[in-house]
Amino acid sequence: MVNDAPPLIQTITPERWAGLSMNFIDAGYIGLLVKNGQLVRKLEPGRHFSFALPYLEQCQIVLVDGKIRSLEVVSQGDFVSRDQYLVNVSLSVMYQVIEPKRVALELSDPIAALTSAVKDNLGVIVNLMRFDQLTQIGRVKIRDYLISNPDSFYTLGFNLDDVRVSDISFPQKHGVVRQLEGLTAREESAHEANLQSIINAERTVNLTPAEPKPETPKPETFVLPPDRAASKPEPSRKPLPPTTLATSDNPTARLVNCQSEVTVPLTANPFTIGRETYNTLVLANDLCSRNHARIERVQDAQGQFGYQLIDVGSSNGTYLNDQKLAPQQPVLLSAGDKIKIATEEWVFEI
Fold first, then answer.
1. How far apart are CA 274 and CA 290, in angstroms?
2. How far apart are CA 290 and CA 246, in angstroms?
3. pLDDT digits (tens, 9 = 90+) for 101-113
4. Across 314-318, average pLDDT
5. Closest residue by Cα to residue 12 from 68, 110, 29
């Protein structure tokens, strides 16, 4: 099938008259104005003028597709299940660029980097599951794991919007499992016979639906290791509890909205901010990313507690006292600091 999708990144050289140029950025694209190899500014959709000295300054506009795009990922024996079966996974990833400067100017091959990140996460989740789990609930668990672990994609400048697993198969390549896992020829034959018997049993059940199915024990409940489960946000979309004010006998830091004067106590640690409903503070603003920022309560070497603000890779940035924060770089908060996210501004009080 021919792929007619436009390229992710395009570079154009504006036509100039006496050094002046006018260019249009189409809807769904982000433009980066580069002059003499340095990024000058980011161009939103619309009409833009630029000036360059003829023969002295070289200007280019790098167009980055900001719409949701699709990436097909197909593995060929790249993964091994927990009970040592080779696994092939084919899936379609719906992704979107959230950091155009990172994708267009800092990554030499952004699609290859994204594909590698997807396969790294696939290797982790497949290795945690057995053969029977992969055949019964593998598609759902793989999708949930990739969507609920966004950090490895945020650092590349991407966000995963959705994942569709199209196929999970188990190739039988003679000698490969023995070579990888140190099995003898007899053990490998028994291993492959067990795989074939399970596949044949599934086919028999599918071909004779009228026969009563023997009762089989329920598959083992799939649980991530505690360190992974604790460090990632819950994928379930539960409604948030109503906001409550901190009581005087249990003082806590808080955010006060500059426009509405609504006070929100920082009762959760970490205190997450974003457009998705599983965040602690949900902002219904199109300029706010799904996972935008977080505030953490930390303790220094002297045992004193404080709060730090972290931008988790938002597309429009997090501002502290009118200064844009670098992604994933914690900054210590002080009383009276102003935090701006999208069009809303908050004052940090403690």
1. 5
2. 26
3. 999 999 999 999 9
4. 89
5. 29
Looking at residue 135, the DSSP 8-state letter turns out to be H
Q: What is the pLDDT of residue 77?
A: 72
Task: Please say whether the dihedral angle defined by the alpha carbons of residues 307, 308, 311 and 317, taken in this order, is positive or negative.
Answer: positive
Q: What is the mean pLDDT of the chain?
A: 79
Q: Where does 106-198 show beta strands of DSSP type E? A: 158-169
Specify which residues 339 forms β-bridges with.
Answer: 320, 346
The CA angle 69-110-224, to the nearest 5 degrees, is: 80
Beta pairing class for 271-274 and 281-282: parallel
Does an H or E element contain 305, and which?
strand 305-311
**Tokens for 178?**
């023995």
Residues found in the chain: 350
CA dist., res. 153 & res. 111, Å (int):
11
The residues pairing with 310 across neighbouring beta strands, listed in sequence order, are 294
**What does the alpha-carbon distance between residue 136 and residue 335 come to, in Å, rounded to a whole number?**
52
Phi (first) and psi of residue 51, to 5 degrees? -130, 140
Q: Give buried/exposed letters for 293-331 (b at 16+ CB in 10 A, else e).
A: bbbbeeeeeeeeeebebbbbbbbbbbbbeeeebebeebb
Amino acid occupying residue 306: G
Task: Kindly report the pTM of this predicted structure.
Answer: 0.51
Alpha-carbon gap, residue 329 to 49, rounded angstroms: 34
Tokens standing for 236?
């379930």
Q: What angle do CA 56, 60, 63 make, to 5 degrees?
A: 170
Mean pLDDT score, 299-306: 86
Structure confidence by residue, pLDDT tens digits, 228-276: 434 444 444 445 444 444 443 445 789 999 988 888 898 888 999 999 8
Contact 341, 288 (CB under 8 A): yes
